[in-house]
Design brief:
By secondary structure, this protein is α+β, with helices and mostly antiparallel strands. Helix content is 30%, strand content 22%. About 2% of the residues have low confidence. This is Thioredoxin-like protein.
């Protein structure tokens, strides 16, 4: 199976989820989507992650991003686990998991997206089958994979960073810009290398031309 790279079309699939059956591409529709995997239900790091995502649901919705989790357990476990996530998450703020979680007991989707753990011998079920690592796929409305990040099972994800990259991707799609190191929404951006200096002056009246001819920065006001 060819590896999934940035620019690949996200493989379509059908799945049972806590919100009912879905066909992945149809479920995405005209939105962006985040597919993120979890080693297993009733595990401590995953519980903190899903609670955080639930509390940040409005941040993703404002960016037209749908969320869908996946782990190698069935729907019965998923639904019971959601109760735990909401209860524990309430220690940090109102927590209500509304996004779907895919049941992937046979690892079919995890294999399709190459999410299974080949490193941690402890990240396996009672039968010795590997659980997933903490993989993130950001998929755009054209069903193109725009970001992949893989964390080991032992390390919780940084969803501030994931939101930051989504902001950068969406900004770059709308304007002819790229974003520099440690960029945050509201910071100056870099004019895309494909834009000529003359075009840059028109598109970005406040552009700064630096000594290095390939570096041109500009403020960019966005909503």
């Amino acid at each position: 199976m060819p590896s999934l790279r940035l620019g690949s079309i996200a493989p379509d699939f059908e799945a049972e989820t806590t919100a009912g059956p879905i066909k992945f591409h149809d479920w995405i529709g005209s939105s962006w989507a985040i597919l993120f995997s979890h080693p297993g239900d009733f595990t401590p790091v995953c519980t903190t992650e899903l609670g955080e995502v639930a509390r940040r649901a409005n941040d993703f919705a404002k960016r037209n991003v749908k969320l869908i989790g996946i782990s190698a357990n069935g729907l019965k476990d998923h639904n019971k686990w959601v109760e735990d996530i909401n209860e524990f998450g309430a220690k940090y703020g109102p927590t209500d998991v509304q996004f779907p979680i895919i049941a992937d007991e046979d690892r079919k989707i995890s294999t399709l997206y190459d999410m299974l753990d080949e490193q941690d011998a402890t990240n396996r079920d009672a039968k010795g089958l590997p659980f997933t690592i903490r993989t993130v796929f950001v998929v755009d409305p054209k069903k193109v994979i725009r970001l992949t990040i893989s964390y080991p099972a032992s390390t919780g994800r940084n969803f501030d960073e994931i939101l930051r990259v989504i902001d950068s991707l969406q900004l770059g799609d709308k304007h002819k810009v790229t974003t520099p190191v440690n960029w945050k929404k509201g910071d100056d951006v870099i004019v895309h290398p494909a834009v000529s200096n003359d075009e840059a002056k028109v598109l970005f009246p406040e552009v700064t031309f630096h000594k290095q001819p390939y570096l041109r920065t500009t403020p960019l006001k966005v909503e």
